[in-house]
Design a protein that fits this description.
Rossmann fold, seven-stranded parallel sheet, three-stranded mixed sheet, 16% strand, binds nicotinamide-adenine-dinucleotide, binds 2'deoxy-thymidine-5'-diphospho-alpha-D-glucose
Length: 356
Amino acid sequence: MILVTGGAGFIGANFVLDWLHGCDEPVVNLDRLTYAGNPDNLAPLAGDARHVFVHGDICDRALVEDLLARHRPRAIVHFAAESHVDRSIHGPAEFVRTNVDGTFTLLEAARAYHAALDGTGKAAFRFLHVSTDEVFGSLSPTDPPFSEDTPYAPNSPYSASKAASDHLVRAWHHTYGLPVLTGNCSNNYGPLQFPEKLIPLMIANALAGKPLPVYGDGRQVRDWLYVGDHCTALRRVLEAGRPGETYNIGGWNEKANIDVVHTLCALLDELKPTDRSYKDLIAFVTDRPGHDRRYAIDARKIERELGWRPAETFETGLRKTVQWYLDHQDWVRNVQSGAYQQWISENYGQRQGSPA
Ligand code: NAD
Ligand code: DAU
C-alpha cells in the first residue's frame, strides 16, 4: 500500500481517486482537513476498503510513525501543504509549520522506517515529494522556461516554504540515502479545486454575477496543466523515477491571466448563456504584493526519461473543468462556508478596483 498526505485536497484527492480507479493497491490517506481539505472530495470511495482515511496532522510525529508501523507502505506520496500564495502573504506562519516542519517530520519518520526495512523493502521504498515551479522564482518574457537546473529563487512566503521543503528532501537523500523523488509542477486546474485559486474563483464569481478580480494588468503568465495529467506524471515518477532526481512537470501551456479569464468567459457564454457576456464582470484590482511575472516549465526531462506527456490541451482541459463546475454547483456552495466568506473579504475587501 501507499501512504498519501493531503489526499482530501485538490490534487491529492484527484490522485487518490485516479489511483484507486486504476489499481487495487490500497491507500492510507492522512489529511488534517484544513479549510482546503474536503471529505466530500472522497465521497466516491465511501465504503471502499482500499481507502483508509486518517484525520490527522503531518506534524504529529507519533501519528506518522504509528501509521508507517501499522500499514507498512511501500511509498509515501506527500501532497499536504498550505498552497495558496495570497494566504501566505496574509499569514505566513502556517506555511512554515506545515510545509517546512511537516515535511521535516515526515522525512524523519520515513528515515527511521526505511532504515528498519529489509533489503527488498529498502530497495523498493520511495518518498515522492510534490512540489511547485514557484521555487524557481519569476521569469522575464524572453527567459527560457525553468529546467531542473534552474537555481532556486522563491519570492513569496509560500514558495519559500516549498523551497525549504525541497531542500530538506534533497538533503535526506544526500545525507541519509532516503530514496526520494521530487516533482516540480506548474499551475494545476481541474475538478475539485478550491475556489480561492484563479480558475475556480473566476467560474464561481461569474456564475454568481460577481466581479472577476484580475490582479494588476493581468499580463502575468502561468503555465497550466490539467490535474489528471499531473497525477499521471506523479504515478510515472513513482514507478520509474530515479531516486534523488527532480522532475519538472508542465503542459507547455503558457497563458496570460487576462487571456485565461477571457477564455473562461467565452466558455461560460456558450455553456451557461445569460443576457450579457460574463466578460462585462471583469475588474482590474490592486496587484498581489511581490507578484511573480511569469512561470514556464521545460518538461523535456520527464518526457525523455519517463515517456510522460500531458493528454489534455488547455482547450480540452478547460472545457471539462468549466463543465465540472457547472455540474457541481452544490460542491461549490458547500465549500463557500463562513470561513470562505471571511477570506474573500480579507483578500479582496481592501483592493482598489476598476472595471475592464
Ligand atoms: P490544497 O490546498 O487543495 O490541499 C492541501 C491539502 O493538504 C488539504 O486537504 C489540507 O487539508 C491538507 N493539509 C494541510 N495541512 C496539513 C497538515 N498539517 N497535515 C495534514 N494535511 C494537511 O493543495 P493542492 O493545490 O491540492 O496542492 C497539493 C500539493 O501540490 C501542495 O504540496 C502544493 O504545493 C503542490 N502543488 C500545487 C499546485 C497547484 O497548482 N495547485 C501546483 C504545483 C504543486
Ligand atoms: O505554479 C504552481 C503554483 O500555482 C502552485 O504551487 C500553487 O499552490 C498554486 O496556488 C498556484 O499559484 P498561483 O499564485 O500561480 O495561482 P493562483 O490561482 O492563486 O493565481 C494564478 C494567477 O492569477 C496569478 O498570477 C495571480 C492571478 N490572480 C489570482 C487570483 C486568486 C488574479 O489575477 N486574481 C485572483 O483573484
